[in-house]
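Technical annex, item 7. During the second reporting period the consortium partners agreed on a shared format for inverse folding records so that results from different sites could be compared directly. Each record opens with the tokenized structure and is followed by the designed sequence. A conforming record, contributed by the partner at site C, is shown below for reference.
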């Protein structure tokens, strides 16, 4: 029988991230609002109170489920704000090719990369994609992630993009992981339009975006603004069409070159600019002036064999509310682990463990428009939390390659 109230006690550290009702920037990213020997009380899946164990124990009644954290760290569930979690097949063959010396760009130019996954995804039915994606859902939950942003982008026809977005909605409705859908029909130009790029942009603008909006299948629209994908003018046209249909904007920007994506994100008021490996002082200034959140994806840098990481320190020092995400996908970043991303953020981008946690929880939540519901453990927010087999908040990123969570809860329910 499900109890209506729940108490979590005996936390070595209750990492609440309580603070201002906005994304955290600068020194704020280092303040995790930790309660030592903390505890939390929730009712019907929502947090009622956090505080010292002695305070919370007074609220425990006979019908309350009591969870003993075993003197471990309790933190908000990770919010992964950039993923591609619906696809068919995998690209293990390309992983082997990169090990043999081929670059990600060389593989893509030879017909691999995104287009390889597009062919497999188009051939799969909605039910087949749903079943495959349930497996990946388990990976996210197992590593402590409770909410993800989920992109389409492996269909690249009206029917196949809608198919992917419907799968994302089914996953959100039928599983414990929360999915926030993003339309990414502008992921790359499919082969059938390689000699008529303008016609594919027309298809996105005149058919795909209006239909996605009519069916309410996405909250955001993203575009891969990069050489070999979509240039600034094409990207602007797509994003302006999306904005006119009520979709919020995200941009793959400055990943492989200085593509102009950062400036475009700033110009159009995008919520995030993602990747940013090549972004410099000019781009950082543009993002700051427009309050665009940078979403940094260090796993994709490592896993394609690059050594060019985004300049996270400059972004934090400029006052940007940095976000961290996995970029989970079958090609350039086949990892769903935010724990792995925490490690890379500190070792490769010199973010402190506290900054990395803020970027992976509360700042990511605000980038999805959910900062009032998730991303911190505060009264009035969903009881999405994780018990980590650690005594100190720095350990999840420090002890690398380990699945630290011993229990993951969404809406107060063990999942």
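Designed sequence (site C submission):
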């Amino acid at each position: 029988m499900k109890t209506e109230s729940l108490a979590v006690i005996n936390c070595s550290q209750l990492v609440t991230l309580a603070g201002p009702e906005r994304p955290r920037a600068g020194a704020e990213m280092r303040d995790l609002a930790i309660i030592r020997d903390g505890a939390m009380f929730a009712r019907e899946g929502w947090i009622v109170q956090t505080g010292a164990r002695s305070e919370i124990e007074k609220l425990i009644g006979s019908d309350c489920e009591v969870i003993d954290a075993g003197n471990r760290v309790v933190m908000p569930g990770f919010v992964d704000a950039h993923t591609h979690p619906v696809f068919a097949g995998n690209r293990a063959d390309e992983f082997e090719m990169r090990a043999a010396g081929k670059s990600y760009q060389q593989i893509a130019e030879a017909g691999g990369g995104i287009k390889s996954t597009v062919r497999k995804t188009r051939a799969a039915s909605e039910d087949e994609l749903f079943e495959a994606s349930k497996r990946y859902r388990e990976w996210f939950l197992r590593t402590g992630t409770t909410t993800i942003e989920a992109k389409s982008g492996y269909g690249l026809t009206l029917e196949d993009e809608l198919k992917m977005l419907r799968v994302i909605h089914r996953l959100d409705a039928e599983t414990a992981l929360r999915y926030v859908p993003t339309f990414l029909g502008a992921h790359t130009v499919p082969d059938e339009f390689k000699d008529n790029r303008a016609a594919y942009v027309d298809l996105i603008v005149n058919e795909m975006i209006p239909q996605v909006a009519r069916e309410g299948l996405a909250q955001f629209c993203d575009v891969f603004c990069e050489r070999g994908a979509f240039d600034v003018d094409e990207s602007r046209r797509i994003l302006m069409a999306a904005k006119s249909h009520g979709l919020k904007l995200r941009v793959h920007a400055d990943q492989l070159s200085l593509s102009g994506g950062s400036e475009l994100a700033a110009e159009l008021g995008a919520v995030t600019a993602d990747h940013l490996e090549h972004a410099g002082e000019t781009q950082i200034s543009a993002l700051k002036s427009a309050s665009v959140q940078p979403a940094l994806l260090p796993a994709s840098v490592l896993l394609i064999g690059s050594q060019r990481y985004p300049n996270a320190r400059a972004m934090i020092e400029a006052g940007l509310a940095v976000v961290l995400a996995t970029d989970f996908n079958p090609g350039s970043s086949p990892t769903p682990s935010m724990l792995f991303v925490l490690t890379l953020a500190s070792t490769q981008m010199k973010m402190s463990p506290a900054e990395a946690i803020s970027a992976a929880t509360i700042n990511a939540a605000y980038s999805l428009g959910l900062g009032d519901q998730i991303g911190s453990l505060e009264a009035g927010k969903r009881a999405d939390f994780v018990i980590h087999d650690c005594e100190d908040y720095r350990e999840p990123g420090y002890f690398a390659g380990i699945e630290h969570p011993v229990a993951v809860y969404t809406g107060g329910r063990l999942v």
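Residues 197-215 form the longest helix (19 residues). The chain has two domains: 5-76+375-414, 78-367. All partners now use this format for quarterly exchanges.
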